């Protein structure tokens, strides 16, 4: 007994990342007068609604939200007015959480495949059967020491799933949130040792935006957009956007420069040359905090003349020059980087070139510049799933497919590779092949494309139905800890019967499922580890997810001093104010830069025979491109997320993606708005309707992501159907269709240096049909 | 209500929060965001324009209603009494802004009434709270000390179709005349 206690205590010390405490300090933000009361009334009964604070997980921005319940039913989600990131606002994706929970087409029971893969015949099974099947397979792998054959693929990080995979010693982990930004993350890691920095955009005066779209889609979406709006409108900040198409951010920018795809870095380097040559660079920062001196930098940049940049990028030399001067003089200024430039074949170097602009004006740990993320607790690197330095063994799908390693079991959690992987048709074929993937288990909220070819499908609880504790991006340089708690219990018979939308007649219909058995992935891992036993169960000494959350809670000394658990439950978040806000001298307490210099010159890249300095590399296939060929760029609207694919409210606004094409080009090709065209790439072709617009560069065409589902649900497929939700029978866009999935024609290529996907540089042909 | 279009980023949050707050069925809207494209490449521009009911000072819909179902409250909010409405659509034809619709389930006319169930409880309308950028402001125009009165006094403001004389109470900052023209043309079609 005592031995077990010891081991647990020891574990708590080493395993729980928050255990290492910080110096004592008391919250100044939450205590005091500006605490806003949280109330809402029912529209029908005018009675106050029950309010439960929780955290939104539709995207990684970590907004604090309040779920409002009318009786047991979730009726409204609004922002938490006290949360320091979103200040009471919410976005359409967050609201679509209501649809996600109340969706009549949710997967509610564990299912087993009948017939051959992809037939779509399923049999309901018990959780007991699920556990015993998986337990048998895992034990077999453990005995033969072949845990490397167990592939875990997740679309959203879960700490207990992480622990479970670590305890089993799994090596095949496909970490989608990391892979998505890999070029960006590796580029920043190569320079400053941290994959991501906080952009203090709200205090900047000049903002150069290279391919980012903070007004629609960003990892820190809501909070960042809010700060940028205030900076623009109330403080008069100047926002300049370089993008191939007019994104929402470009539309709200002071100037939009339509740039030729893949040439952002030469513009950035030409700007750097101007800044260096005019003597506008921050000399002391370069000498003291970087490993490359100004004079050497001058030599390196001499090649990137304004003329060369104009020729490559189609942006006028005079514009580049005056922007460079503005950037270096109207400080604080910042250059921000988005997926538009990092998801290219030259993405890694693109990111490094634009980051160089920031280093030239000494933009590290400065107001209105870039900051290292602050996290609760001293152990800054590992505390936050969003910012931790990634373990090396994580693989991407391409490597898995090409390697000859045997796969025994493939477990996908909230991940839909058969839809979201580039060249998704071949992914589907791979997953469908029983020789390559003998056993495929999918845990998701809906019957996704991947689930359709799976052997076993498990119902996952949505983020509004479980417990969690995670760090929010510290946009104001205060570490924030968010609590996620269940706001709706998993659907039960009683609740369905009580639901106002319920009709008695539906009870007799065979398709109506009155009872759900969805489970949180954490609870699933805990139960599975208990069945497997041995060291796995020792690594997960928790009763359930709530137990885990409360144990993590009690291991954070500062937090424990300020709040008890019930207090945290009623607030929904906690701000650690012990770290000072803008304190340049205290950066040493943030591990990635302990006395370390910004590596403009990277020895590691030199060793691997890559260019060690920020460099412009043109994309060969773009230069060979012919007249009727275009560079396909994809983008995500602010209504598309994994959780909104089957959401009636967001799909109603945006259910179809059209191919953006420049008006002059369309006239030349004889294409009119709304015409159908065939768009083909080396891996496939699609038929899609055209949007003829003035808002895109003539070299590029653009297609939105997140459409053209062939599974998930009837709303995602744009089909009208009857259910206990009256709205599903009012679906009106069934004749318009649900668009196309651009992933079908995107090549599966990676940037050879950064390792990230090249989603935005496929060359496509367009034919009128 | 005052909508600051300089701050609007076209995120559709107001349209979705209205659906959940007021239980609006699919196919009809009380609030939505118009997108208008303008200009030639590369000097093109895109405008976002959120539309809600103007709750006019001189509401035509109230004048034409044959059963007195459309009522202007003393505080200026125009609402429809669901127990009186017979769904005759006179008000829909009369409304110059096209903000009314027939609820496909209840078959009666409905529209945005600035969430008066929330306003009566001392809260702000749902779209005002939800707006990501804080672009929507709501308050008492008769109180000169309210935030909205101050903002109206400080900024140049516009309304949609001022020539009709309805005196709309939804004001805009930064409304582009050509963007409004584009909407008018679309409506005429």
According to CATH, the fold-level topology of chain B is Alpha-Beta Plaits
Strand order of the largest sheet of chain B: 8-1-10-9
Nearest-integer average pLDDT of chain A: 82
Output the CATH class name of chain B.
Alpha Beta
Q: Give average pLDDT of chain B, whole number.
A: 89
Element-level helix/strand string of chain B:
EHEEHEEHEEHHEHEEH
The CATH architecture of chain B can be given as 2-Layer Sandwich
Q: Which overall shape of chain B is indicated by the principal axes computed on the Cα atoms?
A: globular
Pairing-aware structural class of the strands and helices of chain B?
Answer: alpha+beta
Q: Taking strands numbered 1, 2, ... along the chain, how are they ordered across the largest sheet of chain A?
A: 5-4-16-15-14-6-7
Q: What's the CATH C level of the largest domain in chain A?
A: Alpha Beta
Structural write-up:
The complex is a heterodimer of chains A (769) and B (189). Chain A folds into 4 domains: 2-104 and 463-505 and 546-575, Phosphorylase Kinase, domain 1, CATH 3.30.200.210; 111-180 and 389-459, 3-Layer(aba) Sandwich (Rossmann fold); 187-372 and 596-607, Dimethylsulfoxide Reductase, domain 2 (3-Layer(aba) Sandwich); 620-768, Barwin-like endoglucanases (Beta Barrel). In chain A, 32% of the residues lie in helices and 17% in strands. Chain A contains 31 helices and 25 strands. In chain A, β1 and β2 form a beta hairpin. In chain A, α10 packs across α12 (294-301). Chain B is an alpha+beta fold. In chain B, a hairpin with a 6-residue loop joins β6 (101-102) and β7. Chain B is globular, with a radius of gyration of 16 Å. In chain B, 40% of the residues are buried.
């Amino acid at each position: 007994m005592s031995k077990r206690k010891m081991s647990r205590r020891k574990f708590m010390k080493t395993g729980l990342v928050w255990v290492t405490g910080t110096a004592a300090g008391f919250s100044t933000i939450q205590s005091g007068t500006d605490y806003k009361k949280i109330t809402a009334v029912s529209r029908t009964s005018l009675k106050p609604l029950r309010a439960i604070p929780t955290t939104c997980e539709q995207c990684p921005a970590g907004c604090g939200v309040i779920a409002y319940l009318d009786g047991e039913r979730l009726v409204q989600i609004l922002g938490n007015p006290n949360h320091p990131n979103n200040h009471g606002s919410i976005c359409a994706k967050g609201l679509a959480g209501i649809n996600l929970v109340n969706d009549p087409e949710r997967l509610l029971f564990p299912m087993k495949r009948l017939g051959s893969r992809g037939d779509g015949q399923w049999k309901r099974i018990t959780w007991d059967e699920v556990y015993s099947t998986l337990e048998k397979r895992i034990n077999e792998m453990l005995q033969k020491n072949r845990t490397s054959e167990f592939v875990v693929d997740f679309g959203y990080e879960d700490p207990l799933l992480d622990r479970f995979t670590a305890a089993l010693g799994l090596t095949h982990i496909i970490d989608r949130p990391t892979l998505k930004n890999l070029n960006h993350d590796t580029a920043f890691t190569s320079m400053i040792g941290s994959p991501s920095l906080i952009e203090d955009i709200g205090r900047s005066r000049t903002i150069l935006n290279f391919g980012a779209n903070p007004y629609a889609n960003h990892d820190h979406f809501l909070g960042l957009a809010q700060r940028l709006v205030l900076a623009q409108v109330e403080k008069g900040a100047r926002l300049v956007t370089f993008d191939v198409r007019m994104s929402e951010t470009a539309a709200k920018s002071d100037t939009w420069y339509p740039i030729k795809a893949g040439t952002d870095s030469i513009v950035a380097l030409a700007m750097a040359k101007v800044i260096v040559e005019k003597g506008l660079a921050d000399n002391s920062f370069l000498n003291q905090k970087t490993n490359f001196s100004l004079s050497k930098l001058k030599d390196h940049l001499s090649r990137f003349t304004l003329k060369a940049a104009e020729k490559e990028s189609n942006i006028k030399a005079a514009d580049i020059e005056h922007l460079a001067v503005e950037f270096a003089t109207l400080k604080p200024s910042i250059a921000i980087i988005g997926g538009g430039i990092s998801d290219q074949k030259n993405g890694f170097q693109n990111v490094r070139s634009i980051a160089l602009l920031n280093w030239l004006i000494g933009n590290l740990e400065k107001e209105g510049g870039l900051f290292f993320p602050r996290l609760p607790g001293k152990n800054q690197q590992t505390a936050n799933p969003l910012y931790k330095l990634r373990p090396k063994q994580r693989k991407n799908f391409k490597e898995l497919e090409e390697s000859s390693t045997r796969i025994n079991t493939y477990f996908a959690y909230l991940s839909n590779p058969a839809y979201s992987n580039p060249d998704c048709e071949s992914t589907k074929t791979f997953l469908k092949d029983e020789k390559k993937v003998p056993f495929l288990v999918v845990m998701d909220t809906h019957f996704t494309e991947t689930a359709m070819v799976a052997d076993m499908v498990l119902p996952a609880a949505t983020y509004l139905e479980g417990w969690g504790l995670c760090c929010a991006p510290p946009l104001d340089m205060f570490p924030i800890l968010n609590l996620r708690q269940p706001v709706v219990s998993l659907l039960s018979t009683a609740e369905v019967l009580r639901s106002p939308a319920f009709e008695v007649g539906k009870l007799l219909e065979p398709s109506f499922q009155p009872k759900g058995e969805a489970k949180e992935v954490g609870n699933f891992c805990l139960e599975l580890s208990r069945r497997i036993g041995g060291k796995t169960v020792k690594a997960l000494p928790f009763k359930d997810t709530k137990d885990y959350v409360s144990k993590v809670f009690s291991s954070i000394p500062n937090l424990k001093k300020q709040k008890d658990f019930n207090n945290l439950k009623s607030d929904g978040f906690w701000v650690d104010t012990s770290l000072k806000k803008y304190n340049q001298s205290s950066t040493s307490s943030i591990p990635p830069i302990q006395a370390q210099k910004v590596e403009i010159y990277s020895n590691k890249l030199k060793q691997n025979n890559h260019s060690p300095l920020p460099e412009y590399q043109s994309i060969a296939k773009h230069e060979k491109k012919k007249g009727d060929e275009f560079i396909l760029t994809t983008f995500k609207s602010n209504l598309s997320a994994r959780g909104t694919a089957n959401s009636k409210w967001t799909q109603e606004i945006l259910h179809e993606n059209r191919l953006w094409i420049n008006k002059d080009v369309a006239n030349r090709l004889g294409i009119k708005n709304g015409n159908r065209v065939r768009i083909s790439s080396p891996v496939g072709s699609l038929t899609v309707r055209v949007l003829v617009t003035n808002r895109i560069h003539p070299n590029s065409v653009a297609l939105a992501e997140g459409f053209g589902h062939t599974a998930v649900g009837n709303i995602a497929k744009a089909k009208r159907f009857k259910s206990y939700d009256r709205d599903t029978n009012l679906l009106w866009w069934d004749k318009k269709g649900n668009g196309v999935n651009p992933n079908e024609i995107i090549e599966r290529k990676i940037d050879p240096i950064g390792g990230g996907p090249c989603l935005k540089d496929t060359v496509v042909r367009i034919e009128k049909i | 209500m005052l909508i600051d279009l300089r701050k609007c980023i076209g995120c559709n949050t107001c349209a979705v929060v209205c659906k959940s707050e007021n239980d609006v069925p699919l196919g009809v809207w009380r609030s939505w965001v118009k997108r208008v494209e303008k200009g030639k490449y590369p000097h093109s521009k895109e405008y976002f324009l959120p539309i809600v009911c103007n709750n006019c000072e001189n509401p035509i819909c109230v004048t034409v209603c044959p059963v007195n179902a459309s009522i202007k409250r003393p505080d200026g909010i125009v609402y429809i009494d669901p127990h009186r409405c017979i769904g005759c659509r006179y008000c829909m034809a009369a409304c110059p802004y096209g903000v009314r619709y027939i609820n496909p389930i209840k078959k009666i006319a409905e529209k945005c009434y600035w969430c008066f169930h929330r306003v009566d409880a001392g809260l702000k309308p749902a779209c005002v709270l939800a707006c990501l950028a804080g672009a929507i402001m709501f308050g008492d125009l008769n109180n000169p000390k309210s935030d909205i009165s101050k903002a109206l006094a400080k900024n140049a403001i516009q309304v949609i179709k001022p020539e009709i004389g309805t005196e709309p109470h939804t004001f805009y900052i930064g409304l582009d005349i050509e963007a409004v023209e584009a909407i008018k043309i679309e409506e005429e079609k």
